[in-house]
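Hi Y.,

Following your request, here is the sequence exactly as I used it, all 389 residues.
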Amino acid sequence: MEGSNRKAEISAVSAVEIIDDHTVKLVLKAPFAPLLAALSDRAGMIVSPKAAQAAGDFVNRPVCAGPYKFVERVAQDRIVLERFADYWNKEAVKFDRIVFMPIPDSTVRLANLQSGGLDMIERLAATDLETARNDPRLKLSTITGLGYQSLSINVNNGARAKNPLGQDPRVREALELSIDRAALNEVVFNGLFQPGNQWVGPSNPFYVRSLPVPARDVAKAKQLLAAAGAPNPRVTLMTTTVPEMMRAAQVIQSMAAEAGFDITIQATESGAAIQASVDGQFELYLNRWSGRTDPDGNLYNFVSCKAPPALNVARYCNPTVDEELDAARIAGDAASRLAHYVKAADRILTDRPLIYLWHPTWLFAMSAKIGGFEAYPDGLIRPQGMTMQ
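Below is the corresponding structure, written out as tokens. Let me know if you'd prefer a different format.
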């Protein structure tokens, strides 16, 4: 589909041939190691072309192949789904109707859960974990996610890139050295998240262990700013209005100030923040990526010269990085892929179009009446097998 952000994830597929009623053949332009991971995720979610075309507006009237049918979406209010009677595994689907409600304030979400207005919430605030755990009406489910939170830096996306932070890697290094990731995790997330400095977490087999999380070094940060001729750079940090992200931004602001940075926080509604980042209307953006099972899905589309503009909002482009990422895509085994990621990481973590900060833990809270829920690292809620007493 024109404008699809998923297109790049399976761009190696040049054609699909029907073999029989139960078999298709994917024809690739070249070997593509992330293919199965991409097909197991959003890019592989099955859509009927005929149904999508008949609906006329697939973005607002999606027709897919899951256990539920789309009913309506009211922006900033709700998404309503109804059970699909002909789903292949319909015996595992117990709920007739599911309503998703966006409630940005984590405190309000928890209060609605406790009052019975909601049956389940995702992204329970880390600071509310004990409250939920001590409530006999509720139960919890947690799992470390695949994604990351980072500071995206505008290095080449319009006029807002023309400042010391966007143009001088020494200033970006100084910003990173001013941040204590472990302290940030403790203060904002009660130590529940995983500090990190790469697109995958330190426990991931594709983590480049020769480039570990750097320790905070305010003295070196000041030296770098002085060498760059920008001892007190002024920077606007855009973040969403989610309370935890606001607190994280404030901690970063305070830490960076000790090195000489003058950071102004710009709180922006999530959708508006995404659009502003795509349009280059930012200097520094506290940005979240939900994560993918294959490292390529956490990296390629954010730093490659060929990446979609909607994802590579920094407009970073380095031919050496592209060469290594392309090679990792066609490598035949994990060791070979890692060798290419090592070379790419050496460049990316020096240029710093993104400063990776932490890997979130998915925190779900729900009514004690709900059974059968299983948390997955991708954070998606799978209703199959879930019940309500």
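Residues 143 and 376 are 7 Å apart (CA to CA).

Thanks again,
Q.
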